[in-house]
Design goal:
five-stranded antiparallel sheet
Length: about 140
């Protein structure tokens, strides 16, 4: 899946109910931009867990799990965080494919089927586009 590069970063803070007996290996947190396949993993012992350098352009999905040691882990708890980006840029949709993106000035994603052989230019919220191939102009929307 193609995604735009992101130039806006945030600190992700995961707050949870601490058990009476904390796990000996701390907590395993996995996170990734929604729609991607590679997980980022951190292990920390404190509550809340803070993770710096998380891209602010994308919706984030993740899991937290207790690490009880010796390969024993607790149940997975899922979480989601919405994008904080409002920067816009122009991209050209270069493939006959289905694209999903958030149009600049809106907050809801739209899905279009680009069946044109001619590249289609759209104005999107930074980091919100997925689907087929595209060319990032690295230019703000006009």
């Amino acid at each position: 899946m193609s995604v735009l590069p992101c130039s806006t970063f945030k600190t992700l803070t995961v707050v949870f109910t601490t058990p009476d007996i904390p796990p000996s290996g701390g907590y395993i947190v996995k996170w990734r931009p929604v729609g991607t396949t590679n997980w980022n993993t951190v292990t920390q012992n404190q509550n809340p867990i803070t993770i710096a350098g998380v891209p602010g352009c994308y919706n984030i999905e993740g899991t937290i799990q207790a690490n009880c040691g010796d390969g024993n882990v607790g149940s997975i708890v899922n979480f989601a965080v919405s994008s904080t980006s409002t920067q816009c840029r122009t991209v050209q949709l270069t493939q006959s494919a289905t694209y999903t993106y958030t149009e600049c000035g809106t907050t809801q994603p739209v899905t279009i089927n680009n069946s044109s052989l001619t590249p289609t230019t759209v104005c999107v919220v930074d980091g919100s586009i997925s689907g087929g191939a595209f060319i990032d102009s690295n230019q703000p929307c006009v």
